[in-house]
Task: structure prediction
Amino acid sequence: MLLRESLNPDDVFFDIGANSGYFSCLALLCEVKGVVAFEPDPNTCAVLAQQQQLNNWSRANLRIESLGLSGRVETQAFIRASDSGESGFGSWPYRQAVGQVEVDVQILDYFCQQANMLPTVLKIDVEGWEYPVLRGAEQTLRGGSVRLVVFESECDAKGQILDPRISQLLGNCGFAIRHVPRPSGVIKSTENYQAYSGS
Result:
């Protein structure tokens, strides 16, 4: 609901941890200028490519990048989970690992420079890998193009983000953070947040 109400035709939407493309599809249905979907798992990326084909979206509408994002450029083990939505990098206590695959990992700042493209809205759903993604996006976040970051993070029983580095980095880049409560009001071990530019 937050994204549907926030996205507009001038937006360039970066879907980080796109999985099979639910939020990429949502953004395109909101008629944004363009979407870049980052999904490291080649199997899941193939499903995302089928979404593109079924909806007849061109590469100008939806650009699929089969790579992960982090704080440095490297090849890294991507842990596959029994539920693809819980797959990701590093250790994640809510993941039931069933395998892994080596994938390419990029820095968002470097990607933006190479692609000559700047996002206005970021969605980050990376199962505990939020800080490395944000660390690699710091220059982009400071650049003034990004007005909204919607992300999932592990939290305490009151809904406070557990990793203080996330709040500090976003704050240093000029963003204020708000918890996005569930309609039920229940607070779970991971919650959604919005970081919006104070400018």
The chain has a mean pLDDT of 94. The chain has one domain: 2-197.
